[in-house]
Amino acid sequence: MKKFARDLPHFLTLFGILFAGFIGFTLFSYDKGFQIAVAIATASSYVIWGVMHHFLHKDLHFETFIEYLAVAILGLTILFSLVIRG
Question: What is the pLDDT of residues 54-64, one digit of tens each?
Fold first, then answer.
C-alpha cells in the first residue's frame, strides 16, 4: 500500500494524459487529421511517461522502453484504423 501511495502522483499523471487524449479524440471527431495528431501526441506522452517513471525508480531497461513503445504502436494502430474507416 505504501508503494501505491508513493506512485499515486505518477499514475494520476498517466490518467490525465490518457483522459486528455480521449477527450481530444472525442471532441475533434469532425477532423480526422487532428484526431491522428491527438493520438500520436497521446501515444508519445505515454511512452515518455513510462520512461520517466521507470527512470525515477531506477529500473529503466531497454526492454521496458520497447514494451511501452509496443503498447503505444498497438494503440495507434487501433485508433488509426478507427479514424480511417470512420
Answer: 999 999 999 99
Calpha distance 27→63 (Å, rounded): 35
Element (H, E) at 60: none
Q: Tell me if residue 29 falls in helix, strand or coil.
A: coil
Helix or strand (DSSP H, E) at 44: helix 32-56
pTM of the model as a whole:
0.91
Tell me which residue of 64, 21, 20 sits closest to 40, measured CA to CA: 21
Q: Could you give the CA distance from residue 29 to residue 15 in angstroms, rounded to a whole number? A: 21
For cell 513510462, the residue is: 50
